[in-house]
Batch of 4 targets.
Target 1
Amino acid sequence: MAKVDFMDKPAPTSESIHALLKRRFSPLAFSSEPVTADVLRRIFEAARWAPSSFNEQPWRFVLARREDEESFERLLDCVIDKNREWAAAAPVLALSVARTTFAGSGQPNRHALHDVGLAVCQLTTQATALGVAVHQIAGFDVEAARAAFAVPEPFEPVAVLAIGYPGDPDALPAKLREKERAARRRMPLTDLVFAASWDRPWTGEGDAESSDPAPESAPGGGSASH
């Protein structure tokens, strides 16, 4: 399957944003071209340097490359049918996992999923810079994935990542092809950002400056992220 340039489907943003963020998208069509170990190391290195609460670094990843057919099929089998239909073409699958307690105290870390999301965001941005796409999959059997890869407590499988070079949408079944070519949409900022109160959408106007210094630490004296 031929590769497709990311700029075939740029985000129609209402404001100017970084080109990498504009280029990022989650394809259904993947090229059969392998993703080399060197590229994967760079992608996961970006995830390694994500910020996290108290520098806990709760993210873990289980990698399943097509070259390792047994582990690839094991992870693919955890994906629900409608996602497996297209994810099977990706040359790499990965399972993101969160440690849900702090390693030192054993207390619940309610920021763990947030921090895994940050790591995957950095992974995805680095992948985009290298011409590689990442499609995150929520539709998978969590307990099947836990069993298939012996994920211990207190770790929690979060998502499956399909990783590879974007492919030709024409190679997809008709229904998926239509979805792949559909316009990209997001809610407007006024539905997402509020000013001082939940019932007051922020209009994007006003540039009042504050002379207050930035806080040096999170409440309680601990660093919020590193």
Note: The beta strands are 59-65, 92-99, 133-137, 155-164.
Target 2
Amino acid sequence: MYYSTTYQSPLGNFTLASDGQNLVGLWIEGQKYHRDTLPKKADEQDDLPVFSETKNWLDRYFAGKKPDVSELPLAPIGGEFRQGVWDILRSIPYGEVTTYGDIAKKMAVKSGKARMSAQAVGGAVGHNPISIIIPCHRVVGSNGSLTGYAGGIGTKYKLLEFEGIDMGAFFIPKKGTAL
């Protein structure tokens, strides 16, 4: 059984989803892959403890308090490769960025392979079902491109700017699949 609720953020409405104990989803309204890891039915239920904890975490995040991802019980739904990428995303510190290529190198080491495709990593990053808390917005192209955010490039820009990242080194691509 899955449950959902909404959260009003400074960036718009979010949908939160839970299995009753853990947070399994957090999607920005209108983002790509919205609710795609959930079964069709999720009962609306606002009073689950995990939803209260998550809303408190988000309130602190948007107040600039830098809450830690480890404070919440997270259980994103996905295969082994995606889980590995999402684990790496959790380790990106607030106010810092990494590249798809850097994550690919870490995944190659984790998998015992000589190399890993940055595009494969990009697919896993883009399908992250727990936006913001698992900070996929902190991943940029090796050339400084802000491509690759399912919540939209404008939202990614705002989140990075909000976290105090100097945006002068980055650019919004003219074309691409994640615009």
Note: The radius of gyration is 16 Å.
Target 3
Amino acid sequence: MSYGPAITLETAKKAAAAAMAEVRRNAWTMAVAVVDTAGDLVYFEKMDDTQVASVLVCQDKARSAARFKRPTKAFQDMLTSGGEGMRVLRIKGAVPVEGGLPITIEGKIVGAIGLSGGTSAQDGQCAKAGVDAVG
């Protein structure tokens, strides 16, 4: 899949709003980041009482998904497979934790979203809600 034009602020806010709506529906506490195709921050939001580390983690997940053109869960799966999958630990910028997803519009990657604050699966569920709202 190739890159398209970078995500707009309006679209980034729409993705983040949908992701945070899923967070609130489940009574979780998270932070969300949306980045452009280069992995640079376009939009960020953090709920009150979110763990401090989630501020950076959500941005790292989004950046990884954008730059590597794949969900961060793909790296998580590589790592958990062991053996040669352990090489993922040497790939600079690859985040092997679910919760980062590329955002595609009309078949092109325009950016990515990352969530942090819950379990990996919860982060992934909320990221998917954000992607689904704009994809």
Note: Residues 61 and 100 are 5 Å apart (CA to CA).
Target 4
Amino acid sequence: MGTVSRAAEETNRRMLRARDAMDRDYARPLDVPALARIAHVSEAHFARTFRATFGETPHRYLQRRRVERAMFLLRETDRSVTDICFDVGFGSPGTFSRTFRDIVGRSPRAYRKEAVAASVPTCFTMSWTRPSG
């Protein structure tokens, strides 16, 4: 019994090593072969085990990490959507927009507009409507 749990522990460690690499290096081109090498397992084993461990494919996990980073950049910077697309590791603006909309529920531009509108402090907007005197 001890060897089975040791083997499971080792597998979890390997999957976490690959997931940590995605968290850290999300902007790099990380595909299943590269991630399997990081985890020191075969590609098929990696793809199957990652999904079983984390509940989504490695590709989907990486896309979600990239979109999360893009959301931050859209909120906190005035960089163009295209620049942000490439900064977070997407290969094309079309793929970025499609993936972003799929995960967030709206386009990057719509997300930015809402985030900017939501971040304007109430006291700032109220000062324009307050009567002077």
Note: Residues 73 and 84 are 7 Å apart (CA to CA).
